[in-house]
Specification:
Elements lengths: L18 H4 L8 H12 L20 H10 L3 E6 L2 H6 L6 E4 L5 E8 L4 E5 L10 E3 L1 H7 L3 E6 L1 H5 L7 H9 L2 H35 L2 H50 L2 H6 L2 H9 L1 H32 L1 H48 L1 H6 L3 H32 L1 H20 L7 H42 L5 H5 L10 E8 L9 E8 L4 E6 L5 H8 L7 E6 L2 E2 L5 H7 E4 L8 E2 H6 L7 H10 L3 H4 L9 E2 L8 H13 L5 E5 L7 H15 L3 E5 L11 E6 L2 E6 L1 H7 L1 H10 L15 H5 L2
Parallel strand pairs: 9-16, 9-17, 12-15, 15-16
Antiparallel strand pairs: 1-6, 2-3, 2-6, 3-4, 4-5, 7-8, 7-10, 10-11, 13-14, 17-18
Helix pairs in contact: 8-9, 8-12, 8-17, 9-12, 11-13, 11-17, 12-13, 12-17, 13-15, 13-16, 13-17, 16-17, 22-24, 24-25, 26-27
Bound molecules: adenosine-5'-diphosphate and magnesium ion (MG).
Length: 754
């Protein structure tokens, strides 16, 4: 699940080629990065050299690394190979990056067609320098054809096309060269397969009539040659099909994941993981259809179109009977397509409900076991299984009908036509020649078969369409892609302002936040308190851009959040929740989480800051200890401290802790709280906690109730003036309440705790 670009080996440090050594910082910017930034700027996108995910094992940033970097920023990019002539021909004024052999880069910024030279620029040179004219001979000494092509928004928008049949068609069409080769080999194969039939025709007419052994030998020879060709071509065509299928597979996989990951969190909160996973996997049905039935039908139809004229030439009457039989089959299947499609939709729904029971049970296995819910889950599962089984039987029965009803017509095409042919020979007046009739019988099957399967194809087409509908229902939702790739990328200081913010969750009546206004300067440690459901988490969600359809304005350093690039925002905002997900991998990997430019030393510092160092060093393998899924080998407090380390390692300007210490035992909580002041140094912190004692150190505490700001101020003032706060405070510190002296000696000064 991690998006780590590689698994770091035991010794290689992520830092070996980190941002400092390449992208700014101490040394000058690597020329490839400079070149990419130059072209990106040409297309109106400002790239952040800190965000490139460099591969520590490579000397220079490779083409795939640069392409990833560009694509993340919403540009279209592709590595390619070109020769000098092709470069000269391009009319687009956008600069093109040449990836030079020595790992550097050059920019092609123009062409001098009269002198046949390229105008090239050093990406690190001053922009006031004139570009240098370079001819083919000179460029070939330092460059062997690798280029990086970058384009702006229009092409990037293609990725946001709705997911439907037309879009899949375009995906396949990109491979038109392969499709053309498959078509050519299919035509050739058809012709080769016709040869034996023609041979039999002449064999019957010549060899038998005139007892010509020479002709027979010739026929055998030609047939062997034809067979060898057929073998080679069949092999080649199959390979092309496999390659085409795999390419399509890879593209679909990338597309699905990209779309899924850019869907807003709201979507995942509303839909069950099991159902989403099952429905998205329907895409493989579509893939099978595209590379299986569709491809085969395409090939078959080529054969039919080529053979039909020949059959008509051989025997028009018999050809007509085959066509009529095929039409009857198509008619029968056509009648059943509608009901079958309805059936398929019901099955898909039942299957996805079934799979969500399974996934939910696995995911919640602790709760299931702890509450001894196994029998209930099993009963639920049984019911779903019974439901899908019944549906499958029903579907089978429904599908059985057309299969049975079409049988006579299929048999006619295979056998009946032979019998009819034989009858025609017997009763013929010499106008029917035996040779062509036999030839017809050999070839007739090749036409009848595909025609019959054409009807089956319609059925598969229907099924694929309903699968596309299912997948599209998920993938065609509005994604956050635009906000993730566009917008401002300011350097944050950390001032936060809510201006009359009202927000309502979809499907609820009362607003979760109502007319909320407050402003805290950069570097503030802000506490949020309030009863459960008062809107504390909602404030943090809005700050992260998770829910974006609020009214009013949220401003970071005075900039409206809607104008800020979402990925940039989230990168600069650290977040620790009550229950954090740790990925499978080592402790170190979990802290770094694959982010660029973070070294092992940074991870150690972050762990120290989070108070995690102490226990990490006691783990069997220290920072290399492997964490399993669900991290059963760590305690809650340890997990939480790792999550805090993971959040602070990138030195976020704003750090949000939402009930981050609430589930901890007092000792772990004390440990984390003790570090909070250190963590807060130099950044804005938003701390949500229902335990007021952990908020005493905050510069400001905001009291919420039913989505409204009741009061905001430091602890001392709030105790004095805010009734709700005082109530909460006394409730939690009853033992310190001066009016309740039965259990405690009066120590009111301690209660103020600062
Ligand atoms: N995903 C959601 N969908 C619908 N309503 C929600 C959602 N999350 C929270 N709410 C509602 O919004 C209100 C505020 O919730 P929240 O901000 O989580 O409160 P707090 O964190 O203070 O306990 C509550 O009434 C809650 O029921
Ligand atoms: Mg909450």
């Amino acid at each position: 699940m991690t998006d780590a670009p590689q698994t770091p080996g035991p010794n290689d440090e992520f830092a070996a080629l980190n941002a400092a050594s390449l992208s700014g910082g101490s040394g000058p910017l690597h020329s490839r990065l400079a070149a990419v930034m130059f072209v990106a700027r040409y297309h109106g996108v400002e790239l952040d050299p800190q965000s490139v995910r460099l591969d520590a094992r490579e000397e220079a940033p490779s083409s795939p690394v640069l392409v990833d970097w560009l694509r993340e920023s919403g540009l279209w990019a592709r590595g390619a190979f070109m020769n000098f002539r092709q470069l000269m021909k391009i009319d687009d004024p956008a600069p093109i990056i040449l990836l030079l052999n020595d790992g550097e880069a050059a920019l092609v910024v123009g062409r001098d067609r009269e002198n046949n030279t390229l105008l090239v620029r050093d990406p690190r040179g001053s922009m006031s320098d004139l570009p240098v004219a370079v001819d083919e001979l000179r460029i070939k000494q330092v460059w062997s054809g690798a280029v990086l092509l970058i384009r702006a928004a229009r092409a990037a928008a293609e990725e946001d096309q709705p997911f439907n049949l037309a879009m899949l068609g375009r995906l396949v069409w990109i491979e038109k060269a392969t499709l053309r080769d498959i078509a050519i080999s299919s035509v050739t194969l058809t012709i080769l397969s016709v040869i034996p039939a023609l041979m039999v025709m002449s064999a019957l007419n010549t060899v038998i009539q005139y007892h010509s052994v020479n002709t027979l030998m010739l026929i055998v020879f030609v047939m062997i040659i034809a067979m060898i060709f057929e073998m080679i071509l069949t092999w080649g065509r199959k390979m092309m099909e496999i390659i085409l299928g795999s390419k399509l597979d890879a593209k679909l996989n990338l597309l699905i994941f990209d779309r899924l990951m850019t869907l807003p969190i709201e979507f995942f909160e509303k839909n069950q993981a099991g159902e989403v996973a099952y429905k998205v996997q329907q895409i493989y049905q579509v893939r099978n259809f595209l590379t299986g039935s569709l491809m085969n039908t395409f090939i078959d139809m080529i054969m039919v179109l080529l053979l039909l004229p020949l059959l008509f030439y051989m025997n028009a009457t018999l050809t007509w009977t085959i066509l009529i039989a095929a039409a009857c089959i198509a008619l029968i299947i056509g009648i059943y397509i509608g009901p079958m499609a309805l059936m398929m939709a019901r099955i898909i729904n039942a299957e996805s409900a079934k799979s969500s029971v399974l996934i939910e049970s696995i995911y919640g296995i602790r709760t299931v076991k702890a509450l001894a819910l196994e029998p209930m889950r099993a009963a639920d599962w049984d019911r779903r299984v019974a439901e899908t089984t019944a549906l499958n039987i029903e579907a089978g029965e429904l599908g059985n009908w057309p299969a049975t009803l079409t049988l006579p017509f299929q048999r006619y095409c295979q056998v009946g036509v032979l019998l009819l042919g034989a009858y025609m020979i017997i009763t013929s007046n010499s106008s029917v020649d035996v040779g062509s009739l036999f030839g017809f019988m050999m070839l007739g099957g090749r036409v009848a078969g595909p025609l019959v399967s054409l009807a089956g194809f319609m059925q598969e087409f229907q099924r694929a369409q309903s699968s596309i509908g299912q997948v599209g229902a998920i993938l065609n939702r509005p994604t956050e892609k635009w906000a993730l790739t566009h917008g401002l990328r300011p350097k944050f200081a950390g001032e936060i302002e809510f201006d009359d913010v009202t927000f309502r969750y979809e499907g609820t009546k009362t607003p979760a936040l109502e007319k909320m206004s407050f402003k805290v300067p950069a570097g503030t440690m802000l506490g949020l308190v309030g009863r459960s459901g008062s809107g504390k988490s909602t404030v943090t969600r809005l700050l992260q851009g998770i829910n974006r359809d609020y009214s009013g304005a949220i401003k970071i350093d005075g900039t409206d959040m809607r104008e800020i690039n979402l990925r940039h925002l989230r990168k600069n905002f650290g977040m620790v929740l009550q229950d954090n997900f740790l990925f499978r991998g080592s402790v170190r990997d979990n802290i770094i989480a694959g982010r660029p430019g973070i070294s092992f030393e940074d991870a150690v510092l972050a762990a120290r800051l989070a108070g995690a160092e102490e226990f990490i060093e006691r783990l069997p393998n220290g920072y290399n200890t492997f964490i399993q899924e669900g991290s059963p080998n760590l305690s809650g407090g340890q997990k939480q401290r790792l999550a805090i380390a993971r959040a602070v390692v990138s030195d976020p300007r704003v750090l949000i802790l939402d009930e981050a210490t609430s589930a901890l035992d007092p000792e772990s909580e004390a440990l984390v709280n003790a570090n909070l002041l250190r963590i807060a140094k130099g950044r804005t912190m938003v701390i949500v906690s229902h335990r007021l004692s952990s908020l005493i150190d905050c510069d400001l505490i905001m009291v919420l109730d039913r989505g409204r700001t009741i009061d905001i101020g430091p602890h001392d003032e709030l105790v004095e003036r805010c009734a709700i706060y005082r109530h909460l405070w006394l409730q939690q510190n009853r033992h310190l309440d001066p009016t309740n002296r039965r259990n405690n000696p009066p120590t009111p000064t301690l209660a103020q705790g600062d």
